[in-house]
């Protein structure tokens, strides 16, 4: 029995050594699906190395993917040979041969719905294996029902949404057979970002657009994660089509960053009013490119206010602390001062690490060069105030 145990250990050690060697190959040092470093799992039926989170998704499609731990599982010789002959780079060429440029490839920072549908699209539905095939996101029209949060009562109710490439719009209707839409949103002003925790649904999507120069939020979800991810990528497809018409000389790599984006940072801070004598009040903050918006509640339709963050050379700055004599009524003591050409804003954070994180994001934004669109936005916001 002891001899058998030693034989098993040596076999397992041999497998671990072999896998370590295979991991040295280019591309195998990161998860094949989300890019997380140092994958600890492998799919011995697909020939790819993956991270712990993605291995959980692979386990849900056992007919496609057989998952094993690189350290703890028993590996057969033929499985090791299969991993050595394939690997992440080779399988990427097979399963990602024809990913549309607008399709959002999730990273390890993205939510479960995005990562699961990316994995299923690749390996289960094989959507990207055959170049030249008509992709479902490019039909030019998408119509369906999404659950939308009511602006005033907070209830989620079913609403009909229509996305049109020809019109360059996303519309939604209160009644399914209604003739007139409740809102017509131009695709060039839309942002969409997954917000499962904020919305309280794993498939929650926040759609943001400009209405009369104010940012308007709507919150939607669909019970089926494939359906909501299809909506997300269809919006990106229509946006890219619109941008190609608007900027005929631009390359895909120049246009892709103009599609949907994740917010740079969100979270609670406390702020005081313009006279800086009022008490500090807790607000939810969203940093979206150069716009720092604040809300009474994370699910508010409109921001209570917003601060434009320009470049340092134009009179914008950020620093730690609070001015001497500031009356800090709250429990949060970690201050941040933002100076703009018009006024000074004071904020407090709950922890020092949160304060440092906000400071880093504000500094990065103020260090970046401003685009022509940034100058336009700055002028519009000044005019509004």
Automatic annotation (TrEMBL):
It comes from the Eukaryota. SMART domains: ArfGap, PH. SUPFAM superfamilies: ArfGap/RecO-like zinc finger (SSF57863), PH domain-like (SSF50729). PROSITE patterns: ARFGAP, PH_DOMAIN. The keyword Metal-binding applies. Residues 139-240, 262-367 form the PH domain. Pfam families: ArfGap (PF01412), PH (PF00169). It comes from Xenotaenia resolanae. Transmembrane segments: none annotated. Keywords: Metal-binding, Zinc, Zinc-finger. This is Arf-GAP with dual PH domain-containing protein 1. Residues 13-137 form the Arf-GAP domain.
């Amino acid at each position: 029995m002891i001899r058998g145990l030693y034989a098993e250990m040596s076999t397992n050690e041999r497998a671990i050594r072999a896998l370590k060697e295979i991991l040295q190959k280019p591309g195998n040092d990161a998860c094949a699906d989300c890019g997380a470093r140092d994958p600890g799992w492998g799919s011995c039926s697909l020939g790819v190395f993956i991270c712990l989170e993605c291995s959980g998704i692979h386990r849900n499609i056992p007919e496609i993917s057989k998952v094993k731990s690189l350290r703890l599982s028993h590996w057969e010789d033929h499985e090791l040979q299969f991993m050595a002959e394939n690997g992440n780079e080779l399988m990427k060429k097979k399963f990602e041969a024809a990913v549309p440029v607008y399709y959002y490839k999730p990273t390890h920072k993205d939510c479960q719905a995005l990562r699961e549908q990316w994995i299923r699209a690749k390996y289960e539905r094989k959507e990207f294996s055959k170049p030249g095939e008509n992709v479902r996101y490019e039909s030019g029209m998408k119509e369906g029902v999404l659950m939308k949060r009511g602006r005033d009562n907070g209830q989620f109710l079913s609403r009909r949404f229509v996305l049109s490439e020809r019109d360059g719009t996303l519309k939604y209707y209160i009644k399914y057979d209604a003739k007139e839409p409740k809102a017509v949103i131009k695709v060039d002003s839309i942002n969409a970002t997954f917000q499962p925790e904020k919305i309280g649904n794993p498939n929650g999507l926040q759609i943001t657009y400009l209405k009369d120069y104010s940012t308007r939020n709507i919150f939607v979800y669909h019970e089926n994660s494939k359906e909501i991810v299809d909506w997300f990528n269809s919006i990106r497809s229509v946006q890219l089509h619109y941008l190609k018409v608007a900027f005929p000389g631009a390359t895909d790599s120049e246009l892709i960053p103009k599609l949907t984006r994740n917010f740079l940072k969100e979270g609670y801070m406390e702020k005081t009013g313009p006279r800086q004598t009022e008490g500090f009040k807790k607000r939810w903050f969203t940093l979206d490119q150069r716009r720092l918006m604040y809300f009474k509640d994370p699910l508010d339709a409109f921001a209570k206010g917003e601060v434009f963050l320009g470049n340092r050379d134009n009179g914008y700055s950020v620093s730690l602390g609070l001015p001497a004599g500031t009356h800090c009524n709250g429990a949060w003591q970690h201050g941040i001062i933002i100076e703009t050409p018009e006024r000074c804003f004071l904020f407090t954070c709950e922890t020092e690490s949160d304060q440092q994180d906000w400071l880093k994001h504000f500094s990065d934004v103020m260090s970046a060069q401003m685009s022509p669109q940034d100058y336009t936005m700055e002028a519009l916001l000044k005019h509004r105030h």
